[in-house]
Structures are given as structure tokens and as C-alpha cells.
Design brief:
It is found in: Endomembrane system; Membrane. Its main location: membrane. It comes from Circaetus pectoralis. By secondary structure, this protein is mainly β. It has a domain of 75 residues. It has a three-stranded antiparallel beta sheet, with no helix packed on it. Strands 4-5 form a two-stranded antiparallel ribbon. A two-stranded antiparallel sheet has the order 6-7. Strand 4 and strand 5 form a beta hairpin. The termini are far apart.
């Protein structure tokens, strides 16, 4: 039987529990060719040999386009990781509204979906279709 390695990493993001049963690394650090667990179990062949099939389901989020997937901790992170925003706005993603570090609008940049980072507010560059990031935010 395989060990349940589900854990909550920082910001309550989905994580992977290392063999030491103490270290919880974010899902997206599994199979990234960098050993984040002391014994390197996050990079083992049986885990990383056939992505995403070889990964436990809780580490994977399937985009609307079944050809694409992202790590579970990339769901609702404000970034358009799927390419079609299904990881941010899809019914499966079920994301909460933009958090306090985000400004809600229709972004002009493809990398964002329904919010832009507040640090981009009033920087002299349009990030929202309505320009609200330059005038209201």
C-alpha cells in the first residue's frame, strides 16, 4: 500500500509529504528535477516516470482541455496555468474571488484570468480592459 502523502503546504496549498513525515513541499515541486525531500523521494521514477499518470490524483488538476494538466497548487493561484483559464475560472476549479493582493477586472494579459496583482496598479501600464488598474485600483 502506498503511503498517503497528501499535506497542506504554505498558504494551504496542496502538498506532498516527504519520507521524514515532517517536510511538506508544494505539489508543483514534485518531479521538477530538483530534490526537495531529503531522500529525493519527490523525484523518484515511479512517481515521475509517466506524468501525470504516475502522480497521485490529488497532485493533479486537469484543465478543460484534457490534453493539459497543472499541479494542484496552481489551481486558483491567479495565474492562467491551463492556458484557457479553466484552472482559475472553470467550474471544476471553484476558486474564491480575487484575494486582497489582487485587483478584480478583465485582464488584457493572457497570463491572468479574472484578477491582476495589485502591485501592477497605477504603474502606467494597462492591465485591465477597463483601465481600472490605472485609475481606480
Amino acid at each position: 500500500a502506498s503511503v498517503n502523502r497528501f499535506c497542506a503546504a504554505s498558504n494551504n496549498r496542496t502538498g506532498f509529504l516527504c519520507d521524514d513525515r515532517a517536510t511538506c513541499i508544494p505539489a508543483s515541486q514534485v518531479c521538477d528535477r530538483v530534490s526537495n525531500c531529503r531522500s529525493g523521494e519527490d523525484e523518484q521514477e515511479k512517481l515521475c516516470g509517466d506524468l501525470p499518470r504516475s502522480l497521485p490524483g490529488y497532485l493533479v488538476f486537469r484543465c478543460s482541455n484534457p490534453a493539459y494538466w497543472v499541479y494542484a497548487d496552481q489551481r486558483c493561484n491567479g495565474m492562467n496555468d491551463c492556458g484557457d483559464c479553466s484552472d482559475e475560472m472553470g467550474s471544476l476549479a471553484a476558486c474564491p474571488p480575487c484575494g486582497s493582493e489582487w485587483w478584480s477586472c478583465s485582464p488584457v494579459l493572457y497570463e491572468y484570468c479574472s484578477c491582476v496583482p495589485r502591485r501592477l496598479c497605477r504603474d502606467g501600464v494597462q492591465h485591465c480592459l477597463s483601465w481600472s488598474d490605472e485609475y481606480i485600483c
